[in-house]
Amino acid sequence: MDAIVTSFPRIEDETGRPSQKEAEDAVRVLLRWAGDDPEREGLIDTPKRVAKAYRELFSGYDLAAEDVLGRTFEEVAGYDDMVLVKDIPFFSHCEHHMVPIIGKAHVAYLPNGRVLGLSKIARVVEIFGRRLQTQETMTAQIAKSIDETLNPRGVAVMIEAEHMCMAMRGIQKQGSTTLTTTFTGAFKIEPAEQVRFMTMIRS
Ligand SMILES: Nc1nc2c(ncn2[C@@H]2O[C@H](COP(=O)(O)OP(=O)(O)OP(=O)(O)O)[C@@H](O)[C@H]2O)c(=O)[nH]1
Ligand SMILES: [Zn+2]
């Protein structure tokens, strides 16, 4: 899984970003591109709102999964069976059209002595979701980051999502769901572990 990039150079200061004004001007251009008038009353503050919303929707670029996953603990009375957090809702944006991907992630691992705080798994989904994505990349990034930081016996990730670029435009197929999976370690080499993961997701 070497080719999977899970982190970006972090922007420690604002030099790597366009200014607020540049971002707002770009939104004004897109408003004109859509056919509207950025100077009409209802749209006057829209560029400012969109710039602010982008910082929230794409806040995953400012965060590193390793920071979140760094805190693990081992006092779990020898528990070594599957830990599964399922139905983690997320919003992302496809990197092709920059429109929403809406879905759920299911993330499991087989502990190797240490466990993660459960909320950290959902935080990792947020970090990768709040970037421009393909579903395949996001699935692989979640698995890789947990695999590398926790060093468990295996990681399984499944994402189910609807892509608005397929629903609202282009082929216009509403309601289709795309499923992607990544398995590492025991989940990859033992089909029975994959079956158990699937069964627990669907139970
Ligand atoms: N594999 C993959 N494809 C995606 C994802 N999100 C969007 N796409 C697809 O990316 C493709 C981009 O195809 P292009 O032919 O370059 O772009 P397009 O002309 O806008 O394609 P249409 O959507 O078919 O109109 C489309 O087929 C999208 O459905 C994703 O997460 N994974
Ligand atoms: Zn798209």
UniProtKB/TrEMBL annotation:
<dbReference type="Pfam" id="PF01227">
    <property type="entry name" value="GTP_cyclohydroI"/>
</dbReference>
<dbReference type="GO" id="GO:0046654">
    <property type="term" value="P:tetrahydrofolate biosynthetic process"/>
</dbReference>
<dbReference type="InterPro" id="IPR018234">
    <property type="entry name" value="GTP_CycHdrlase_I_CS"/>
</dbReference>
<dbReference type="InterPro" id="IPR043134">
    <property type="entry name" value="GTP-CH-I_N"/>
</dbReference>
<feature type="region of interest" description="Disordered">
    <location>
        <begin position="1"/>
        <end position="23"/>
    </location>
</feature>
<dbReference type="InterPro" id="IPR001474">
    <property type="entry name" value="GTP_CycHdrlase_I"/>
</dbReference>
<feature type="binding site">
    <location>
        <position position="165"/>
    </location>
    <ligand>
        <name>Zn(2+)</name>
    </ligand>
</feature>
<keyword id="KW-0479">Metal-binding</keyword>
<dbReference type="GO" id="GO:0003934">
    <property type="term" value="F:GTP cyclohydrolase I activity"/>
</dbReference>
<keyword id="KW-0862">Zinc</keyword>
<feature type="domain" description="GTP cyclohydrolase I">
    <location>
        <begin position="24"/>
        <end position="202"/>
    </location>
</feature>
<feature type="binding site">
    <location>
        <position position="97"/>
    </location>
    <ligand>
        <name>Zn(2+)</name>
    </ligand>
</feature>
<comment type="pathway">
    <text>Cofactor biosynthesis; 7,8-dihydroneopterin triphosphate biosynthesis; 7,8-dihydroneopterin triphosphate from GTP: step 1/1.</text>
</comment>
<keyword id="KW-0547">Nucleotide-binding</keyword>
<keyword id="KW-0554">One-carbon metabolism</keyword>
<keyword id="KW-0378">Hydrolase</keyword>
<dbReference type="GO" id="GO:0008270">
    <property type="term" value="F:zinc ion binding"/>
</dbReference>
<comment type="subunit">
    <text>Toroid-shaped homodecamer, composed of two pentamers of five dimers.</text>
</comment>
<protein>
    <recommendedName>
        <fullName>GTP cyclohydrolase 1</fullName>
        <ecNumber>3.5.4.16</ecNumber>
    </recommendedName>
</protein>
<feature type="compositionally biased region" description="Basic and acidic residues">
    <location>
        <begin position="10"/>
        <end position="23"/>
    </location>
</feature>
<keyword id="KW-0342">GTP-binding</keyword>
<dbReference type="GO" id="GO:0006730">
    <property type="term" value="P:one-carbon metabolic process"/>
</dbReference>
<comment type="subunit">
    <text>Homopolymer.</text>
</comment>
<dbReference type="InterPro" id="IPR043133">
    <property type="entry name" value="GTP-CH-I_C/QueF"/>
</dbReference>
<feature type="binding site">
    <location>
        <position position="94"/>
    </location>
    <ligand>
        <name>Zn(2+)</name>
    </ligand>
</feature>
<dbReference type="GO" id="GO:0005525">
    <property type="term" value="F:GTP binding"/>
</dbReference>
<comment type="similarity">
    <text>Belongs to the GTP cyclohydrolase I family.</text>
</comment>
<dbReference type="InterPro" id="IPR020602">
    <property type="entry name" value="GTP_CycHdrlase_I_dom"/>
</dbReference>
<dbReference type="GO" id="GO:0005737">
    <property type="term" value="C:cytoplasm"/>
</dbReference>
<dbReference type="GO" id="GO:0006729">
    <property type="term" value="P:tetrahydrobiopterin biosynthetic process"/>
</dbReference>
